Amino acid sequence: MKFCKQIALALLFSIYTPGLAKAQLTCNLQHVSNCRNINVLMSPSLGKKIHLFLRDITYSTNNRIFPAAEIASMYLGGAPNPRIDIENLSIFTACQPHNCTSRAGIIFNKSNEIVSIFLYEPEKIDPENFHPLTYKATIYKVNGGCINKETIRRIIMSDLNNDNLHIIGIDIKIKEL
After folding, report:
1. pTM
2. Taking a C-beta distance cutoff of 8 angstroms, is the pair 139, 120 a contact?
3. 89-95 contacts: CB < 8 A, separation 24 or more?
C-alpha cells in the first residue's frame, strides 16, 4: 500500500511541476502569430498601425464615405474568427459589432507588419428574407502583394459559409498602396 501512495504522489507532482510547465507564448503586435484571434490585438497601437497603413484612403458604405482606417478598426473590433496561417502570413478576420454581415480582415507577414487589409460587406440583399446575396470586397495591399486575390476570395467565402451566409457571388477590387 505504501508503494501505491508513492506512485500516486509521484504522478501527481509530475503532472504539475512549475519548472516543467510550458512557457506562455506572448501575444502582441511583435508576436502576432501567437495570437488566437484579432480581439487580443485590438488596441490603440494597432489602430495607429491601421491608420498608417491605410493613410487617408476613404471607403464607401451605406451611401456614405468614411476613412477606411476607421471602418477597418470598427469591423476588426467585433466578433473574431480564429487566426488563419498561410504562407508565413497570419490572417485575422472579424465582423462589425452587432452587424456580422459587414466584416474585415488583416494580414501580417512574418515580420509582424501589416501587408493587407480587406473589407467586405453585402452588395445585394434578398428582398424576401433580407439575407445577403452578393458581397463586395475591397483589398488594400502593399505594392507587389504577398497573397493573391483568389486566396482572399476563398478566405472570405469560407468565413461567410461558416456563419451560414451562403452567397452567390463576390465582387473584389484591389487597391495597391
Report:
1. 0.83
2. no
3. 89/115, 89/146, 89/147, 90/32, 90/33, 90/35, 91/147, 91/155, 92/32, 92/35, 92/37, 92/38, 92/41, 93/38, 93/155, 93/159, 94/37, 94/38, 94/39
51: which residues sit within 8 A by CB, 6+ positions away?
A: 69
CA angle 33, 144, 140 (to 5 degrees): 65
pLDDT in tens, 130-142: 889 999 999 999 9
Q: CA 157, CA 52: separation in Å to the nearest integer?
A: 28
pLDDT digits (tens, 9 = 90+) for 26-50: 999 999 999 999 999 999 999 999 9
